Amino acid sequence: MFKFLFIALQHILPQHLLTSLIWRIARIRHTATKNFLITRFVEQFDVDVDDVSLQVPDDFSTFNDFFIRELKSGARSVDDAVNSIVSPVDGTVSIATQLQRDSIIQAKGLRYSLDDLLATDLELARAYDGGSFATIYLAPYNYHRVHAPLSGELIAAHYVPGDLFSVNQTTVERVDGLFRRNERLIMHFNTERGPAALVFVGALNVGSISTPWSGELRPRKHGVGEALSLTSHDTVVQKGDLLGWFNMGSTVILLLPPGAAEWHDRLTPGETLRMGEAIGTLKSESP
């Protein structure tokens, strides 16, 4: 009953208004207020602060600054095997498997299409038909910066407006087409093994998504997707380089073309990941 009510409430809530309110609260600079928010959040979600680079809560100007916190040098090691694919985030595996043509599994009994997910990038979508994907959920307590899962060149990035449903497991299992309905930022890369795409999926209370190329992208419900300028930052990235961050938590989806990669056996639903650890292997090109 609770799950039904939770989903029903999300359909009637003013998602963007609520998210805008959270955005403002997360940026309050009043010392006592922001310290209270950070401290209560750490206690409520049992956040591991041992590897945070700054002192918690005093060294953070706002709650959002804490949420997008950097880690101490060496807190995450990036697997350096030449053919490894690494987790772009700290998070939990929702699903990792092959696409059935252009169909992506959201949860048991629910699917959505590549065309719907990539929206304005329909020509680029064809590269992933029959390929592989991994969906990784970032819980509130996770480190929320997103890093490159493999080396390559960022060739395009598009922002797509949309809904802001929660992306927790309860909602994923019950809202049809959740990831193609929510707002998202789509990054396209060229790599030594062909194209790759990484999708930042927005969610309820995710006040914005930021990248070194775009700055901060605030949610909007309507409009068409827009291509982002990539002139403000180097587009060549190495495995483990910073790609962006969620200002509050969400989900990332990694797409790879057919025959390009093989996921590790342990990449199963519920598996906990740390950014930089190997999650798959790039296959050698056929002679």
Sum this structure up briefly.
Helices cover 21% and strands 30% of the residues. It has 287 residues and is of the alpha+beta class. A hairpin with a 3-residue loop joins strand 10 and strand 11.
Describe this structure in words.
The strands form 4 sheets. Strands 2, 5, 7, 8, 9, 12, 13, 15 and 17 form a 9-stranded antiparallel sheet that branches. The model has no long low-confidence stretch (mean pLDDT 89). The chain is α+β, with helices and mostly antiparallel strands. Strand 10 (208-211) and strand 11 form a beta hairpin. The N and C termini lie far apart (56 Å). It is globular and about 55 Å long. The protein is built from 8 helices and 18 strands.
Q: What is the structural class? A: alpha+beta
**SS element count, helices:** 8
Helix content: 10-25%
- How big is the Rg? 18 Å
Distance between the termini: 56 Å
What quaternary form is this?
Answer: single chain
Shape: globular
The major β-sheet equals: 9 strands, antiparallel
| Topology order in helix (H) and strand (E) letters | HHHHEEEEHHEEEHHEEEEEEEEEEE
- Mean pLDDT rating: 89
Poorly predicted regions are none
**Total DSSP E strands:** 18
What percentage of the residues does DSSP assign to strands (E)?
A: 25-35%
